[in-house]
């Protein structure tokens, strides 16, 4: 299966989250990332737009009754940028995690603008 999109991690945030998980969880996360890279239409139980945000998505990982989320954004059609991740303990995604993701998204676009000198 060829890649439709490229998934990259922004800075060290995703890696830190990933390294804190068990191998089993890591494998599941990689499976979801692979789905995002290769599926034309990614099912919403894998990737969902966060209501009330400007282009923030969450990749959804579930193992048994445990749930994890990885925030990401699309840069153009091809590129998915992974931001922070966390284990979800409550029904609602904690506001602090969403705020952090929004901050990282802003930071990403600022870095990108600086890189290209716009």
Short structural summary:
37% of the residues lie in helices and 30% in strands. With 118 residues, the chain is of the alpha+beta class.
Features:
118 residues; alpha+beta; 5 strands; 30% strand
Question: Can you offer a commentary on this structure?
Answer:
The protein is an alpha+beta fold. It has a 5-stranded mixed beta sheet with strand order 1-5-4-3-2. A hairpin with a 3-residue loop joins strand 4 and strand 5. The protein is globular. The model has no long low-confidence stretch (mean pLDDT 92).
The count of DSSP E runs of length 2 or more, i.e. the number of strands, is 5
Number of helices: 3
Strand content: 25-35%
Spatial gap, N to C terminus: 36 Å
Give the overall average pLDDT.
92
Overall shape: it is globular
What spatial order of strands do you see in the largest sheet?
Answer: 1-5-4-3-2
Task: Please give the share of residues in helix.
Answer: 25-40%
- Flag low-confidence runs: none
What characterizes the major β-sheet? 5 strands, mixed
Specify Rg, calculated over alpha carbons. 14 Å
**What structural category arises from helix and sheet content?**
alpha+beta
| H/E topology pattern | EHHEEEEH
């Amino acid at each position: 299966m060829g890649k439709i999109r490229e998934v990259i991690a922004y800075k060290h945030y995703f890696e830190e989250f990933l390294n804190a998980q068990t191998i089993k969880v890591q494998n599941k996360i990689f499976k979801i990332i692979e789905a995002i890279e290769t599926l034309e239409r990614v099912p919403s139980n894998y990737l969902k737009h966060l209501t009330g945000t400007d282009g923030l998505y969450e990749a959804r990982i579930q193992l048994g009754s445990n749930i994890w989320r990885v925030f990401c954004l699309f840069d153009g059609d091809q590129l998915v940028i992974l931001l922070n991740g966390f284990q979800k303990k409550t029904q609602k995604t904690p506001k602090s995690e969403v705020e952090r993701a929004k901050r990282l998204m802003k930071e990403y676009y600022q870095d990108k603008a600086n890189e290209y000198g716009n």
